[in-house]
Amino acid sequence: MEAKPKRRIVTENGDTGEDLVLATLIGNGDDVGPLVRHAFEMGRPEPLVHQLKNVARKKEAEIEDLCKTHYEEFIVAVDELRGVLVDAEELKSDLATDNFRLQEVGSALLVKLEELLESYAVKKNVTEAIKMSKICVQALELCVKCNGYVSEGQFYHALKTMDLIERNYLKIIPLKVLKLAIERRIPVIKSHIEKKVCSQFTEWLAHIRSSSKSIGQTAIGLIASARQREEEMLERQRKAEEQNTGGLGESAYTLDVEDSEQDSVLKFDLTPLYRAYHIHTILGVPERFRDYYYSNRQLQLDSDLEISYGQPFVESYQTFLAQIAGYFIVEDRVIRTAGDFLLADQVETMWETAIAKIVLVLENQFARMDSPTHLLLVKDYVTLLGATLRQYGYEVGPVLDALDKSRDKYHELLLEECRKQIVTAISEDSYQQMVIRKEADYENNVLSFNLQTSEIMPAFTYIAPFSSMVPDVCRIIRSYIKGSVDYLSYGVNTNFFSVLRKYLDKILIDVLNEVILETINNNSIGVAQAMQIAANISFLEKACDYFLRHAAQLCGIPSRSVEKPQASLAAKVVLKTSRDEAYHALLNVVNTKLDEFMKLPENINWITEEMPQGPHEYMNEVVIYLETVMSTAQQILPTDALYKVGVGAIEHISNSIVSTFLSDSLKRFNANAVSAINHDLRVIENFADERYHSTGLDEVYKEGSFRSYLVEVRQLINLLSSSQPENFMNPVIRERNYNTLDYKKVATICDKFKDSPDGIFGSLANRNTKLTAKKKSMDMLKKRLKEFN
């Protein structure tokens, strides 16, 4: 304690100004680093060290002073600290005692605690082991179940099980070996399932292809049944219209087959497709399966579109078309029921390929066909195919267009077939009036074609005014109309009556009329044949109205629309012209026969010296022949034709007599010859009057009797027989009595008229005889005619 004050004094006595500055800096807590650095840089650290020591001594002196000031308090504190130390010792002793006791008690507990902790560790390990075992057992159970599903072919359940293993167990399987084994087997099983599914699907593809034909045939059969029901309904309507009982009032019907009905009848299983697609979706490769399906179905379609050339198309077309129909019915069901599996564009592409091939096949096959029946059979089935696939939304317009393009080819074949039948019917005709003995025959041959001449049912046996050729030809034309309607029905144009009418005119004009004209122009036909042909044509002309009405009925056109005069067939006018041609041919035959009878230059002595007492013998043959012709014509021909035949024959006789007088072969005739001709002419005039009245023509043709067509020859004979022939030059008399005679003809004929007998000495005996008044008058006429000419 004593040393401290001494050091303080020394320190205090040794204070310098520098020491105070340094002490102040330290007391203020300032940084003395710069001073130290400066001292070392100056190379004089000793003064700084000395100063620091002085500052330290000064601080120690301050501490001693402070301790002296608090000495008593410090002593008290030390005493209290000693007391605390004693208490601490006692506490330590107590703690040692308590610790000893605690050690004694805690040792047993510690042993039990260690045992408990060990038990807890064992329990934790066991629990963990059980948990791991359960995971492994569950995973193995799922693996066993998956194997079972695979074995049983339940691939969907197998894949779902594997998905469950991968999602919930594979990451948490504690056994590495088991985990690796499962990880290796899952891809293998998936690959196996995919192969199995593809194998089953391939079998289904083969099955559905083999089933497509029956599917298509069934669907087409449904459409055919619906079409038959429609046609039966139309037939009932036609019969109702014919009986004036009213129809349904509709001219067109639509073919409607419900999809539900189609689906209920067309049963085919798409389950393998759904299953395969679903499994591939689960496998994550749906696109691959869609491509696989599309490519295989495309190959099947290409194969189906190939036709067999080893078999005629007419025998294989139904199989070919039914297979295609079945194919696209299946595709329609797939696109409607399999979700997004198949795209509409893909089906549309396949359909475009198919329809292009179908059109090509049809065009090639139609071009090779030579039978209208075969072409019609194919056409009907093609339209059924179109109607069937139209129900499923496919565009069948190109197919119907192909049929429409073959329309002319079909009608050419049908026309040629009917031509042969018509030629046979006409060439084998007996040209005799048809004898009908039963009412049924009357209905089939007369009423069926509207050929009756009266609405009253005749008594049987009935002799028709036409021959058997007429109903035979009508049946041929009716079958042609039916064949044409069959082809034109269900095609591109729903209203095809105008087209049918064109083809009807074609067969009537280009076939029937031509064959009739060829027959007419055949020089071998006789009067009876020509007369019957003319009568037949008039009835065929009448049948044209029936043909048009029948065509309209088959087309569903109201009958009233074709009953108008302007709606009649052009063939009717052509047949009328041909009828006139037949009349002309008939008249030619009659006139030729008359010329054979009336060989006037041979049958008449033009310079006879005897006065004739009656007509020439040939005139009896002429009258008998005309009687036969007119009687037959009255039975067969209509009134106007009968009139034409009579007028033609009478006029020809008149012209023949006048022509004979004008003929260069006749050089001379006398009054006796004129008198003989006058007797002949009176016979013809009497016949003309009798026939004109007995046939009833006088009531129809009041202004033009048969006698009126003999007026030229009658006026000529009257002139030559007149006592004053020169009156011909009197205009009044000529207009009244000789108005049909021509100056030149009269001049030519009068030059040949020699009234004196042509005896050996006739001219000498009469040379100085006074000329008679008649001869003078005739000579005057000749002179004046020469002057006039």
UniProtKB/TrEMBL annotation:
Q: Which one Pfam family would you cite for this protein?
A: EXOC6_Sec15_N
Q: Where is the Exocyst complex subunit EXOC6/Sec15 C-terminal domain?
A: 400-752
The primary site where this protein sits is cytoplasm
Q: Where is the Exocyst complex component EXOC6/Sec15 N-terminal domain?
A: 51-220
Which UniProt keywords are present, listed alphabetically? Coiled coil, Cytoplasm, Exocytosis, Transport
Q: Where in the cell is it found?
A: Cytoplasm, Cytosol
One GO cellular component, as annotated: cytosol
Q: Which domain of life is it from?
A: Eukaryota
Determine if Transport is one of this entry's keywords: yes
Q: Which InterPro entries match?
A: EXOC6/Sec15, EXOC6/Sec15_C, EXOC6/Sec15_C_dom1, EXOC6_Sec15_N, EXOC6PINT-1/Sec15/Tip20_C_dom2
| GO terms classed as biological process | acceptance of pollen; Golgi to plasma membrane transport; intracellular protein transport; pollen germination; pollen tube growth; vesicle tethering involved in exocytosis
Similarity section:
Belongs to the SEC15 family.
Q: What this chain does, per the record?
A: Component of the exocyst complex involved in the docking of exocytic vesicles with fusion sites on the plasma membrane during regulated or polarized secretion. Involved in polarized cell growth and organ morphogenesis. During cytokinesis, involved in cell plate initiation, cell plate maturation and formation of new primary cell wall.
Q: What is this protein called?
A: Exocyst complex component
Q: Which organism is it from?
A: Raphanus sativus (Radish)
Q: What's the gene? A: LOC108862486
